[in-house]
Design a protein that fits this description.
Elements lengths: L2 E2 L7 E5 L2 E4 L5 E5 L5 E5 L6 H20 L1 E7 L4 E4 L1 H7 L10 H7 L5 H12 L7 E6 L5 E13 L5 E10 L1 H59 L5 H28 L2 H5 L2 H16 L2 E5 L6 H6 L3 H19 L3 E9 L3 E8 L15 H12 L3 E6 L5 E8 L8
Parallel strand pairs: 11-12
Antiparallel strand pairs: 1-2, 2-3, 4-5, 6-7, 6-10, 8-9, 9-10, 12-13, 13-15, 14-15
Helix pairs in contact: 5-6, 5-11, 8-10, 10-11
C-alpha cells in the first residue's frame, strides 16, 4: 500500500520507511473558458515534482553520507571551483558558512607528512592513471587529528578529452583505525601473556622433572636394590620371594613410567644435545607408543645453524609434540614425517605431515581443537605463524615458520 507521507506534497508518496517515490497526484489550476469565465481542472500529473524530487534526493544523500561518515567533493576545472558535500565539511571540522573549499585550503588541512601523496594522487587522476584508495591524516582547525581514506578520483572529460571535472570521496576512518589499534594492542598483550605463561610453564615443568629425577627415581632405585638384596640373601619362603619379585617388577614399571613423564615434561636431550636430538628422540618414542612410523629429516641443521635455532627450541619442540599428539588421537595414519630446516630469509620451518584421514579445514571448532589453537599461539608468541593444510582422506600437514634470532654469545 502506498501512503501519502504527512508533510510532503500529495505527489510524493512513501512506499516504506526511508524510501521515497513519486506517484501521480491530481492538481488543479485556473484557466479561461471559451466564454471568458474562469474554470479549474487538472493540468499536471507531477506539479512541483522535479523540485521536490531534487530536494528529497539531496536530503537523502546528505543523510546517507552522514551515517557512513563519507563526504564527496567536485572540482570544476574550467572555473577552478571546488564544491563539498555537507558531510565533508564535518569531516574536516570546518564551518560551511565561512570556509571556502579550494585546493590550497585542503592542502593546508592535510598532515604535512601526507601532502605529497595527495598531490601525486590528484596528478595521476588528471593524467588518466588509476589511483588506488589511500589513507591520509588531516588536522582540523581545532588541532584534532583524524584519519581519512581518499578514494574515487572519477574524471569527467569533454569531447576533446580534456578534463572538465574531477570527483572524489573521502571516508572518515578514525574510529575504525582506533578500534584496529586497540585490537592490535589487545592481541599483542595476549601474545605477551601467552609467552609469559609458556615461560612459567616450562620452568615449572623443568622443576617437576628435576624433582622426579632426583627424588622419586632415586627412591625407586633404592627400593629395587633393597628387593634384589633381600632375594640374594639367606633363603626365604616361596611366598616372600614371590612378593619381592613382584615389588621389583612393579618398581621397574614405575621407573619406566616416571622416565616417560620426565621426558614429556622436559626432555633432557633438548637441554643437553639440542633441538635435532630432542626431535629425533620424540619421533622414536612416538613410534614406540603409537606403532606409527615416524621419521625426522633435519640433515641441514648442523653447527652454526643449530645455534640459530636454539632460542626457538622449546617452542618448536612443543609444536611438534602437540602435532604428534593430534596424529595419535585423530589421524589413523601409517606414517609421519617431521621436517626441520632453516629457510631464507632468516627463519626456521617445522613441518609435521601424516598420511592419515585428514580433516575438513574450517569445520566448526570442537573441544579437542584447542591443541591447534595452542600451537598457533605458541608460534605467534615466538614471532612466527602456523598453517594447517588438510583434505579429507589426504592427510594433514602442520607448518610452523618462525624467524630466527642470533644466539646469545657464550661468555
Amino acid at each position: 500500500m502506498l501512503a501519502t507521507h504527512r508533510g510532503l506534497p500529495s505527489a510524493v508518496q512513501v512506499e516504506s520507511p526511508g524510501f521515497i517515490m513519486l506517484a501521480p497526484a491530481p492538481t488543479t489550476m485556473s484557466s479561461a473558458a471559451p466564454d471568458g469565465s474562469a474554470s479549474e481542472g487538472p493540468v499536471s500529473r507531477f506539479a512541483l515534482s522535479a523540485e521536490e524530487d531534487l530536494r528529497l534526493r539531496e536530503a537523502h544523500l546528505a543523510r546517507a553520507q552522514a551515517l557512513a561518515h563519507l563526504g564527496s567533493w567536485r572540482w570544476d576545472m574550467a572555473n577552478n571551483a571546488v564544491s563539498w558535500s555537507t558531510e565533508l565539511y564535518r569531516i574536516f571540522g570546518v564551518d560551511p558558512t565561512t570556509f571556502v573549499p579550494s585546493n590550497e585550503a585542503v592542502h593546508q588541512l592535510i598532515h604535512p607528512a601526507d601532502r605529497e601523496q595527495h598531490l601525486v594522487s590528484v596528478q595521476r587522476a588528471l593524467q588518466g592513471c588509476p589511483v588506488a584508495p589511500f589513507e591520509s591524516r588531516i588536522i582540523r582547525p581545532s588541532g584534532e587529528e583524524r584519519v581519512v581514506l581518499a578514494s574515487g578520483f572519477d574524471v569527467d572529460r569533454d569531447a576533446a578529452g580534456n578534463v572538465r571535472t574531477l570527483f572524489g570521496a573521502i571516508l572518515d576512518i578514525t574510529e575504525r583505525k582506533r578500534m584496529q589499534r586497540d585490537l592490535e594492542q589487545a592481541h599483542g598483550d595476549l601474545q605477551r601473556l601467552v609467552a609469559a605463561q609458556d615461560r612459567v610453564q616450562e620452568q615449572e615443568r623443568q622443576r617437576i622433572a628435576r624433582e622426579l629425577h632426583d627424588d622419586l627415581q632415586q627412591s625407586l632405585a633404592g627400593i629395587m636394590l633393597e628387593a634384589a638384596a633381600a632375594r640374594a640373601g639367606p633363603p626365604v619362603d616361596d611366598a616372600s620371594d614371590q612378593a619381592l619379585a613382584r615389588i621389583q617388577r612393579i618398581t621397574a614399571q614405575i621407573v619406566r613410567s616416571t622416565r616417560q613423564i620426565i621426558r614429556d615434561l622436559r626432555p633432557q636431550a633438548l637441554d643437553e644435545l639440542g633441538l635435532k636430538a630432542a626431535l629425533d628422540d620424540l619421533a622414536r618414542q612416538f613410534s614406540q607408543r603409537s606403532g606409527v612410523a615416524c621419521m625426522l629429516h633435519a640433515s641441514a641443521l648442523e653447527g652454526a645453524t643449530e645455534a640459530l635455532v636454539a632460542p626457538l627450541a622449546t617452542s618448536l619442540y612443543r609444536i611438534a609434540q602437540e602435532a604428534l599428539n593430534n596424529v595419535a588421537r585423530h589421524a589413523h595414519a601409517r606414517r609421519v614425517r617431521i621436517e626441520l630446516a632453516v629457510v631464507s630469509p632468516g627463519s626456521v620451518r617445522l613441518q609435521v605431515s601424516d598420511d592419515g584421514v585428514g580433516m575438513p579445514i574450517g569445520s566448526p571448532q570442537r573441544d579437542d581443537t584447542f591443541g591447534l589453537l595452542g600451537m598457533r599461539e605458541r608460534a605467534r608468541a615466538a614471532g612466527g605463524c602456523l598453517s594447517i593444510s588438510s583434505q579429507p582422506g589426504a592427510g594433514t600437514t602442520v607448518t610452523a615458520e618462525i624467524p630466527t634470532r642470533p644466539a646469545a654469545p657464550v661468555a
